[in-house]
Amino acid sequence: MIYSERIRLRRNERLDIPKFVEWLNDPEVCRYLSVTLPVSLANEEQWFENMLKRPTDEQPYGIEIRNIGTEGGGHPWRLIGNCSFMDLNWTVRSAEVGLFIGDKSCWNKGYGTEVMRLLLRLGFETLNLNRIFLRVDEANKGGIRAYEKAGFILEGRFRQGVYQKGEYRDLLHMSILRSEWKLETQEKR
Ligand SMILES: CC(C)(COP(=O)(O)OP(=O)(O)OC[C@H]1O[C@@H](n2cnc3c(N)ncnc32)[C@H](O)[C@@H]1OP(=O)(O)O)[C@@H](O)C(=O)NCCC(=O)NCCS
What we know:
Strand order of the largest sheet: 1-2-3-4-5-6-8-7
Number of strands: 8
Radius of gyration: 17 Å
Oligomer: single chain
Number of domains: 1
Helix content: 25-40%
CATH topology: Aminopeptidase
CATH class: Alpha Beta
Bound molecules: coenzyme A
Number of helices: 6
Order of helices and strands: EEHHHEEEHEHEEH
Distance between the termini: 24 Å
Strand content: 25-35%
C-alpha cells in the first residue's frame, strides 16, 4: 500500500470489477475519458486478466479513502477510483499517468490533486523516472486545475485531438520533470 494524508493506493482486485462497470457506464464520469461505448462485466473481466500480464510497474492502483463510521465493523477503506502509469520508457525514463475518480461525491475535494502528488512521489522517488506526462481534454477544467496544483505544466496542444458527441476539441499535453518536482517539494518543506 502507498499512503498519503487522506488516501491510499493498492493493487486492483477482482472484487473491484463491478464498481468499474458501474463507473465506466456513467456518462458524467466518462465525459472526458476515452471510454465512449458501454462497458460490460465481461469486458472488464477481460481487461483485468490482460492487466495482470502487464509489467508490475504498469499495473494500475485502486484509489481508496477512509470509510467514516466503521468503528463497529465494516471495511475501513473505500474504493473511489483508479490510476496508473502507462508506456514506461526506461531509456528516456518517462511515463504517462492517468486517473479517474468514479465516485462523483468525491470530486472537487482535493483527492485528484492528492492522488497525482502521490503518483509523482512514487514515479520520481521509487521508479526513478525523470519525466511524467499526461493528456487531458481541454474542456476538463477540473482535471487541468488539479494537475496544475500538483505541478504539471502545459507543454503542448494536439489540435482537434478529441472527438466526442459530434465535436472536436484540443487534447492538452502536460508534464513535470524531476527537477521541477524536486524544487516544488523542497519549497513546501
Ligand atoms: C478530473 C479528476 C481526476 C479531478 O479530481 P478532483 O478530486 O475532482 O480534483 P481536485 O478537487 O483535486 O481539483 C479540482 C480543481 O478544479 C476546480 N474545478 C472544478 N471544476 C472546474 C471548472 N469547471 N472550472 C475551473 N475549475 C474547476 C476545483 O475547484 C478544484 O480547484 P481548487 O482546489 O483550486 O478549488 C476527477 O474529477 C475525475 O476523475 N473526473 C472524472 C474522470 C476524468 O475526467 N479523469 C481525468 C481524465 S484526464
